[in-house]
């Protein structure tokens, strides 16, 4: 395939961009995964898709000799898993330090009481296992660490479940993407159209973030119009899970 952009503007050649980015491309992916599992703004990010694409782009066929990130898929997966684990730990610490006060804020594009309630429902149903299962549920994986911290889930139990979830999700989905690229024709297709694919990933990620932000903003405005845009101290306390909710079984929220 003749890359028109590369022919017209050599500095837009995918190979040139990838070589220049080097390990920084992987750093950016890890930062996105960290943010999605450790910061309240993280729910805006497309974690699952990014992990699969990271695995596909780790195939040496896409960009010899070690794929787009310059290291093999095992290192890529472990670093992404580590980023997911650290994000979960930071999210827990934020919730633990801030307490229920972290929920006392106006509805906005970055915070929604409904997201907290949805996360709490997972803990009520699955107990501490939510920390693992939430990795595969958008929004919940962002709020679960904070909810666990606010509710003072046993730290060692949380860390164990967080580690398991981070490895299954971060490392597992990355390797799954790599295995997908081994299907005959897939790796070659990615190599042939890598410029289009990378552009799609970047534009898609930005578009995903913008879409979800404005959707949450619209919901916040509706709540404001109904006079339900602020979480009071009493409501924040009610959103705090009872420690029994973190046991592996069905327990009511406080």
UniProtKB/TrEMBL annotation:
Residues passing through the membrane, by range: 66-86, 160-181, 193-214
VTT domain boundaries: 45-178
Main location: membrane
Family: Belongs to the DedA family.
InterPro entries: DedA-like (IPR032818), VTT_dom (IPR032816)
Origin species: Microbacterium proteolyticum
Protein name (Swiss-Prot/TrEMBL): Membrane-associated protein
Pfam families xrefs: VTT_dom
Superkingdom as given in the UniProt entry: Bacteria
Location within or outside the cell: Cell membrane
